[in-house]
Amino acid sequence: MSQTDVGPPLGVDPGSVPEDLPESPLERVTGVPDWQRIDLRFLRLVEVAESRYGLFAAALLVAMVAETISFLFATTMDEGYHHRFTGLSVDPFARGTVPIPYPEHRLRLLGPVLAWTLGLRGLVGTYVPIAFNVPLLMLFFLVVRRRATLPLAIVFTLLMATTHVTMSSRILLGYHDSMVFFFATLAMVCRSPWLAAMSFFLALFGDPRVALMIPLMGIWTLMDPGSERPLATSLRRVAVLVASSAAFVLASDALLRAFEYEDSSTREIERYLALEFLNAMNPMYLHLSASMTFKAGWLLALMPMWLWLTRRPRVVAILAANVLTIAGLAVMVHDFSRALTFCYPLLLLGVLALEEEAPHSALTVVSTCYAINLLTPFYQGMTKGLWLVSYPLSVEYRW
Q1: What is the mean pLDDT of residues 99-124?
Q2: Per-residue DSSP letter, 6
Q3: Are the C-beta atoms of residues 339 and 393 closer than 8 Å to each other?
Q4: Can you tell me the mean pLDDT for 32-49?
Q5: How large is the average pLDDT for residues 318-340?
Q6: For the chain, what is the largest distance between any 2 Cα atoms, rounded to a whole number of angstroms?
Q7: Mean pLDDT of the chain
Q8: Cβ-based neighbour number of residue 275 at 10 Å
Q9: Cβ(220)–Cβ(200) under 8 Å?
Q10: Mean pLDDT over residues 62-67, rounded?
């Protein structure tokens, strides 16, 4: 039997694999024929989509499958917080009092303005951020695919669909995290400084905490192998993002005055600065809450710091300082696991660092992380307790 008669393992490019796969080693050893290997069949399908219709078609296919699996993994939708979105989507530019539960969120206009523009009033508008899960996952696939193998890009995309990066918007209706991370990721990976500036400016109107990611985004540009002058390019990118943040601060001040909402917003922000939420923290839950952000994906987040520790100690120092800053500010709010999501560029850096340093182990590591995420429950981690809001589809129907 020739080599072409045998289907390759998941980590091998399946470009030359024929449709008919009789008597493979897997069939002889385990009794499972290759045609029952769903992973190989899906890999073959994505490869066909990429070769015939282009990279974006393959990205769309993988993103749709990843989001579908993620939905089956945790299907619960909590409508209790939609007012933070629907209270603004009716008229994002209203003056005076608006029906939102958190006055400090008055300028989180990214999702509500888009829903208002599309004419989506009420609860239906909260599905706009959920729809952004697909382009966000597509972006993750495209980024990894351009620098790694097809199987690794697929499994990494599936993994990201089981983290807070994509799941918060679908589970907690009214949160538009997926939109924020889409524009932040676009600002990080695009080559155009103007597109980066505009994308980051929009992301800030979804959640100003995205500014905490600027050092991580600078490191991403620094480690880009396609850059001829990586340090100069990285510094320019950081300068562009800082300028966007400064523009956001000026625009925020003007908008709050125009909306006649400056006093209400300032009073709520002062509660955070007075450490009111920090005083309610229960340290016993912090490690459990933190683990829920990416779950096994934290292994990838630690990869760049571990693999680059001796060769790039300054880069590791910047990454560690940035993570500690995000974590330190995250304890000032209740939703600790969600606040740590702003560390997610580490996962992109980690998977590519792993592919560079240990290419034969990369797929196994990422696949194992994905399996762990699927087999473990998903919940929201707070600074004062654990909040279970998500159930697998079968449990949801049983209850």
Answers
A1: 86
A2: S
A3: no
A4: 81
A5: 89
A6: 78
A7: 84
A8: 12
A9: no
A10: 95
Q: Which residue type sits at 153? A: A
Question: What is the reported pTM?
Answer: 0.86
Give tens-digit pLDDT for 207-220.
999 999 999 999 99
- How far apart are the C-alpha atoms of 292 and 387, rounded to whole Å? 11
Cβ(63)–Cβ(138) below 8 Å: yes
> 386: which strand partners?
381
The Cα-based distances of 84 to 95, 114, 122, 172 in angstroms read: 16, 15, 11, 11
Question: Cα(256)–Cα(160) distance, rounded to whole angstroms?
Answer: 35
Residue 295, both tokens: 């779950």
* Among the listed residues 339, 377, 391, 295, the one whose alpha carbon sits nearest the alpha carbon of residue 177: 339
Residue 274 has pLDDT above 60, yes or no: yes
Q: Predicted confidence band at 34 (pLDDT cuts at 50, 70, 90)?
A: low
Residues in the chain: 399
Closest to 67 (Cα-Cα) out of 173, 142, 169 = 169
Cβ atoms within 10 Å of 118's Cβ, excluding its own: 12
Tokens found for residue 13: 């490019």
Residues 388/390/391/392 CA torsion (nearest 10 deg): -140
- Going from N- to C-terminal start, the domains of the chain cover 48-260+277-372
Q: In this structure, what are the phi and psi dihedrals at residue 157, rounded to the nearest 5 degrees?
A: -65, -40
Q: 211 vs 44, 205, 244, CA distance in Å?
A: 40, 11, 9
DSSP 8-state assignment for residue 209: G
117 phi and psi angles, rounded to 5 deg: -65, -35
Instruction: Report the DSSP beta bridge partners of residue 381.
Output: 386
Give the residue from 386, 390, 363 showing the smallest Cα distance to 376: 390
Per-position b or e across 348-382, b if 16+ CB within 10 A of its CB:
bbbbbbbbbeeeeebbebbbebbeebbeeebbbbb
Number of neighbours of residue 237 by Cβ within 10 angstroms: 26
